[in-house]
Amino acid sequence: METLLKELSNKIEVNLTEEQISKFVTYKELLKDWNQKINLTAITEDSEIVLKHFVDSLTVLKYIPQNANVIDVGTGAGFPGIPTKIAREDVSVTLLDSLNKRINFLNDVIEKTNLENIKTVHGRAEDFGQNKEYRERYDVAVARAVANLSTLTELCLPFVKVSGSFIAMKGNSTEEFEEAQKAIEMLGGKIEKIDKFNLPGTDIERNIVVIKKINKTPNQYPRKAGTPANKPIK
After folding, report:
1. Helix count and strand count (H, E) for the chain
2. 17, 138, 6, 29: which is closest to 86 by C-alpha?
3. Which of 21, 143, 187, 219 is the most exposed place for a label (fewest CB within 10 A)?
4. Using CA atoms, how far apart are residues 29 and 20, in angstroms rounded to an integer?
5. pLDDT tens string 143-175
6. What three-state secondary structure class fits 76?
7. CA R_g for the chain
């Protein structure tokens, strides 16, 4: 696993130290162990974990400024927040997830990999996006989630400071990006760029959508829990 991780991360111009690779190994072992107790991932082969979770998460690094304060919204099993933190000690990371079992897993990973300046928060994005302690407090919000871009933007952009960015990690969804334009503008954002690429050595397509926050998000957003997913802004 170590050799594969080093090889694939080099292909996306991320050079990991031996210590960082060791932390990824610990993370992988904990992911597989906890996955037997709670549903964290359907991906369980070491090589697949390396490619589809770790390396995929690391593709976001070049979009995150030095010393950024980052929130990973709907982090799940910690992607991309924990790989980002392992590879970039300069950033501080908040992992937000609505399921307490996953939070317990994330805390175990943080403890056993000795990560610093990273914390977990148990709750829904709709609630914390309205919380003054979290609203418009972050340089970057990231999400690697299955929700459509309109919904994701409503969940994530409220956390971002004006002049910060929301980075959405998506599959191949060109039509979805066009449909989200109205929501992005209403919520104070503007698509800065969409980078399309394949994961190294595969034909797995990925898109990274960088949305710049140019205006404050109107106070009524995000709407109450469940509404952004059930009734996306159109």
Report:
1. 11, 7
2. 17
3. 219
4. 14
5. 997 789 999 999 999 999 999 999 999 987 667
6. coil
7. 17
* Integer Cα distance of 110 and 200 in angstroms: 27
Question: Reduced to 3 states, what is the DSSP secondary structure of residue 72?
Answer: strand
Write the burial class of residue 179 (CB in 10 Å: 0-12 exposed, 13-18 middle, 19+ buried).
middle
Residue 70's DSSP bridge partners are: 93, 140
Q: What is the pLDDT of residues 81-114, one digit of tens each?
A: 999 999 999 999 999 999 999 999 999 999 999 9
Sequence-distant (≥ 6) Cβ neighbours of residue 13 within 8 angstroms: 62
pTM confidence score: 0.97
Residue pair 93/118 in contact by the 8 Å Cβ criterion: yes
For 99, the token pair is 């399921």
**Are 138 and 159 contacting, i.e. CB atoms less than 8 angstroms apart?**
yes
Separation CA 234–CA 162 (nearest Å): 23
Tell me how far the alpha carbon of residue 130 is from its chain's centroid: 20
Dihedral angle computed from the Cα positions of residues 134, 176, 167 and 79, in that order, rounded to the nearest 10 degrees: 90
Tell me the C-alpha distance between 108 and 95, whole Å.
13
Segment (H or E) for 194: strand 189-198
- CB neighbours (10 Å) of residue 185? 15
**Residue pLDDT, tens place only, 126-138:** 999 999 999 999 9
How many angstroms separate the Cα of 178 from the Cα of each of 174, 175, 191, 231?
7, 5, 10, 17
Q: Give the type of residue at 106.
A: L
State both tokens at 19: 């210590």
Query: Which pair of tokens denotes residue 151?
Result: 């919904």
List for the chain the helix, strand, coil content (%; round to 5): 40, 20, 35
